[in-house]
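Lab channel / #folding
Pinned by the channel admin:
"Please post every new chain as: sequence first, then the structure tokens as a reply. Keep commentary short and put observations after the output so the thread stays searchable."

First post following the new format, from NK:
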Amino acid sequence: MTQYFEIHPDDPQRRLIAQAATILRDGGVVIYPTDSCYALGCLLDNKTGVERIYRLRQLAKGHHMTLMCSDLSEIAVYAKVDNQAYRLLKSLTPGPYTFILKSTNEVPRRFLHPKRKTIGIRVPAHNIAQALLAELAEPMMTTTLLLPGDNFPLSDANDIRERVKSGVDLIMDGGACGLEETSVISLEGSEVEVIREGKGDTSLLR
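Reply from TO:
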């Protein structure tokens, strides 16, 4: 049975955040708000949870999820960050950006691009997402809540309850969320490359 928590977007209730973290540690899949859209998430070592997210979104084999981190220091555990990348990450995080970086050995191979060994990583500027990451003290694997056949992510928690039903273990209602996905920026080479224009401003990167 899917649980449903109404969480204050500015001052998340610690009790509910702790319960959400327990659900994730117990192998659960949750829907939670971010600074761009609502997202699906589970813990990095939750292989079954990742498979459930793939089925819910009907993702093609090889689609790579994003690692949601709390801050720059956590990024450095899972991705190789040189000085140039560090300066850019510091200027744009937290925020609605996903960065493509070379991974470290801390990331399971199944999450990596098969040839380039890269991983998408981001740090959200959202109180609920940050409170959850702080309670977990580890990152989450995540992807936008964009259901099959939809052109835009779901942004209203009531619509999410109706559409997703029992597909997840918890819906974290933090109020209305956005419809625009993150900007995606590749930092795997010597040049910064904007892969997708999204909510995050990329005008200074061109």
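NK: The two ends are 47 Å apart (CA to CA).
TO: also worth noting, Residues 3-198 form a domain with the DHBP synthase fold (CATH 3.90.870.10).
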